[in-house]
Amino acid sequence: MAGRFAPRTTAVPRRQAVVTGPYAPPLERTWTPPGPIDLRLVLGPLRRGPADPTYRALPDGSFWRATRTPAGPGTLRVSAAPGGQVSAVAWGPGAQWLLDGLPGLLGADDDPDAFRPRHRLVAVARQRRPGLRLLRTGLVMESLIPSVLEQKVTTDEAYRAWRLLVRTHGTPAPGPADGPFGTYGLYVMPDARTWSLIPSWEWHRAGVDAKRSATILRAVRVARRMEEAASMELPEAMARLELIPGIGPWTAAETLQRSNGAADAVTVGDLHLPGIVGYALAGNRSADDEEMLSLLAPYEGQRHRAARLIMLSGHIPPRRAPRMTPRDIARL
């Protein structure tokens, strides 16, 4: 979210949790989903690697998320409650915004019943995952920036870059000082102005080349315009994001799947997805984007959901080619 929307805060020592204080107690909400819900499947797409500083899934079954809302930084804890309900607790200036958006985050705007399986494999995957719903955060930049970082690099490289940049330039998430996050804790990603002020050597230290960092800098300069895409229909939202040089269909789809809950935002230009879809639906592990789109055509309007169910089916081709080799940008 653009810097002008983020309230000024007193500097907080690094690696300490922000205490909301006695005059800002956490807010709570209990919500009853319209059907079965699997919090791990629903919230999982928000996780950018096992050490993502903005996301935690704990052994007690709770899921923690730190983000920058239009009302300011906020931390959200979500867990299953008796009777099929969901319990949520939120801290920080963005607490009320997060609780108001809880149903959308957990897929209340999604319509899984609109999906009609056309392949047995997809039907079985859907039957085995009745709690899958497509989340909607309503926030574009928090998904756009890590998606840009993931362009044409290994996932490990992208996750490392996101982790370093958020911990170095973000702020400790609001919440209890004795929270369950150990030494590093949760962090809220930087606001737009802070992203724009990151020096070139910090991008370099995080392993981010000039092309990706320049794309992020172009996006944060018009962060307000990017955030408007969260309320647009998919074609208009895709067009809005792709106005930024360096943001193409792959990045736009990866972003809008999360920010808009876009059931039809199929990811094209991916290194692995065409082969996975081709192998699952036609036995062709060498499928390209054109063949993938042809195979997904019966799911028009629900192609992203179909792709997720295919991934969850576990019916993916055995790896033959070597993994992408991480690049040393110091040599580029």
From TrEMBL:
Write the protein's name: 3-methyladenine DNA glycosylase/8-oxoguanine DNA glycosylase
Keyword list (alphabetical) reads: DNA damage, DNA repair
**What top-level branch of life does the organism fall under?**
Bacteria
User: Could you tell me which species this protein originates from?
Assistant: Streptomyces clavifer
Q: Which PANTHER family match?
A: DNA GLYCOSYLASE, DNA-3-METHYLADENINE GLYCOSYLASE
Task: Tell me the InterPro entries matching this sequence.
Answer: Alkylbase_DNA_Glycosylase/TA, DNA_glycosylase
- From which residue to which does the signal peptide run? none
Presence of keyword Disulfide bond: no
